[in-house]
Specification:
Layout: H1 13-18, H2 21-32, H3 35-55, H4 59-77, H5 79-112, E1 115-117, E2 123-125, H6 134-172, H7 189-197, H8 201-210, H9 212-215, H10 223-248, H11 256-283, E3 290-296, E4 302-307, E5 315-320, H12 330-347, E6 353-359, H13 367-370, H14 374-393, E7 400-406, H15 408-419, E8 426-430, E9 450-453, H16 466-476, H17 481-487, E10 493-494, E11 497-498, E12 508-509, H18 526-536
Parallel strand pairs: 5-6, 5-7, 7-8, 8-9, 9-12
Antiparallel strand pairs: 1-2, 3-4, 4-6, 10-11
Helix pairs in contact: 2-5, 3-4, 5-6, 5-10, 8-10, 10-11, 12-18, 14-15, 16-17
Length: 538
């Protein structure tokens, strides 16, 4: 892709400065934009075949029907490749962007240290700014620049290879013999990963195109393959919601049925807005690229979306939202993950990070539901498998994995870590009502890698068990009430156990300004900076 856009080769200093990652993103989006026209053409062939059947019979008709079916299959079999080209170009853009940011940081560091860098990347002492020990500083700056160029060169070679493979597959045909054995429902992510890597690229493409519902939800299948499979299903999922809305438009007699219908209609409309919001983000040709890792319309709807490829990033955040979160809220919740990712980029320019919105559980809709731990405990096995899947599919050196839970989502994270263990290097709790344990050691995490923050004006501080509230009321009514409350060993107990942001919990705390229960992601809140630094391991 260097120079003429076809051949891979060494990337030069000036070439990297001129590189425009946004142009590659736009090119990938243009390829992805062909999906709908190709689908319409395939549907048109199906309609034409139906027209022929109604007024034409015989051998010629049979041959024509067969040929139309072959053409339609040829069109639909190529759809996953359009998403694959988009992925290849988007990931190339991300890596070039990271290399360019790293190059900029190295040059700025050199110039701040009294060195000069010319247009070819040569580093020399600046005569106008003499510095001590200039020789070692020059060597260090040159090494940093070479590392940035090497990163860009590796991205160039990889993208060229991926696109060449897709081009070859297009020439030889997308159809392959379907693979035989499939992993069963109880297969773990490591077993799934072993199965997937044992398939040929043609077999993998066949599964994505012909069994997207299976591939799209399998923990242990790489994020890129899951994304292609789930994007193929996106239009069908929207049609399902439209069909539900149409069915609910039928008039019903006044009474309780009408109340139920209106409630269901409101739910469908909200889910449609959420799905369209996700679709808009999935179609946006901007960094980081979004990967659709799962989508389910059952109940209030569920979604798993990554910003950046978690299989390639050196640091990966999994964000678990709390009460009332559902498909309708997914775009806004994804925005919170994006703000952490943006702050990571500001703190560590050139570091590849990814953030995942994990909304694959039935979050409580009402306070009566949120008062119990059942829904959090039910979510534990799925979150455990998902994190294990991220470990299994990651390429190269293991990523630093951080799992963040907000509000009731912090109980989901805590219960999963307590009961099943989490493939994570750090846990973060913000605005927590308790995480199901009384001490950080019960979460089975490395020492010093459990973090929490609670804003001083977060109402979650008032969420305590009824017997605790009664005991506090008694204390408050005595002359020694305030002093006893301070000395009370149970004063840090919340609804679901000890306050993880309290000193006695055994975790580490980071500050939050007074932004209430949902303001941890506000730009001027130090909590946002704290979350990003934990994700980066700083």
């Amino acid at each position: 892709m260097s120079g003429d856009g076809v051949r891979a080769g060494p990337v030069g200093y000036a070439q990297l400065w001129r590189a425009d990652p946004g142009a590659w993103l736009a090119t990938g989006a243009a390829w992805r934009g062909l999906v709908d026209p190709v689908r319409r053409r395939a549907d048109g062939l199906t309609a034409r075949a139906g027209d022929l059947r109604s007024g034409w019979s015989g051998a010629a008709s049979t041959a024509a029907q067969r040929r139309l079916a072959e053409l339609r299959t040829a069109l639909t079999d190529g759809l996953p490749a359009l998403f694959e080209i988009d992925q290849a170009l988007a990931e190339f853009a991300a890596r070039v962007g990271a290399a360019k940011a790293r190059l900029g940081a190295e040059v700025a560091r050199a110039e701040t240290g009294g060195l000069s860098v010319d247009r070819t990347g040569a580093v020399r002492p600046d005569p106008a700014r003499p510095v001590d020990r200039a020789g070692p500083a020059v060597v260090q700056a040159q090494a940093g620049i070479r590392r940035a160029l090497a990163l860009a060169g590796a991205a160039d070679r990889e993208a060229t290879g991926r696109l060449a493979e897709i081009a070859t597959a297009a020439v030889t045909g997308w159809v392959s013999v379907p693979p035989g054995w499939r992993p069963g429902p109880g297969a773990g992510p490591v077993e799934v990963r072993r199965w997937w890597t044992g398939l040929s690229p043609a077999e993998q493409r066949w599964l994505v195109g012909h069994e997207p519902g299976r591939v799209g939800r399998l923990d242990g299948v790489p994020a890129a393959a899951r994304d292609r499979a789930n994007r193929l299903l996106l239009a069908d999922r929207r049609q399902e919601l439209l069909a539900r809305r149409l069915a609910l438009l039928r008039p019903l007699p006044a009474g309780p049925f009408e109340v139920t219908r209106r409630a269901r209609m409101a739910g469908v409309e909200a889910a449609l807005r959420g799905l369209d919001g996700l679709g808009e983000r999935l179609a946006t040709p901007s960094a980081p690229r979004a990967y659709l890792l799962g989508l389910d319309l059952a109940g209030d709807g569920r979604a798993m979306v990554a910003l950046g490829n978690p299989d390639r990033a050196g640091a990966v955040l999994t964000y678990v939202p709390g009460m009332t979160a559902d498909l309708a809220d997914a775009p806004a919740e994804l925005g919170r993950a994006a703000r952490v990712l943006d702050r990571c980029a500001a703190i560590g320019p050139g570091e590849e990070t990814a953030a995942v919105l994990w909304l694959d559980y039935d979050a409580p809709d009402f306070l009566t539901e949120a008062a119990g731990a059942r829904q959090a405990e039910d979510a534990g096995p799925a979150l455990h498998r998902f994190q294990e899947g991220l470990r299994a599919t990651h390429e190269g050196s293991p990523a630093r994995q951080t799992v963040l839970g907000h509000s009731y989502g912090s109980l989901v994270v805590g219960a999963a870590a307590r009961d099943h263990g989490l493939g994570a290097d750090a846990l973060v709790f913000v605005g927590s009502p308790g995480v199901g344990v009384d001490h950080a050691t019960e979460l089975r995490m490395p020492a010093g890698q459990v973090w929490a923050s609670t804003a001083p004006d977060d109402v979650i501080r008032l969420v305590r068990q009824p017997d605790e509230l009664a005991r506090r009321a008694v204390l408050a009514g005595t002359p020694l009430g305030p002093a006893l409350a301070v000395l009370d060993p149970h004063s840090d107990r919340l609804w679901f156990g000890a306050d993880p942001s309290a000193p006695g919990f055994g975790g580490r705390r980071f500050p939050s300004a007074g932004h209430g229960h949902t303001g941890y992601w506000d730009a001027d809140n130090p909590a946002l900076d704290g979350m990003a630094r934990i994700v980066l391991g700083r």
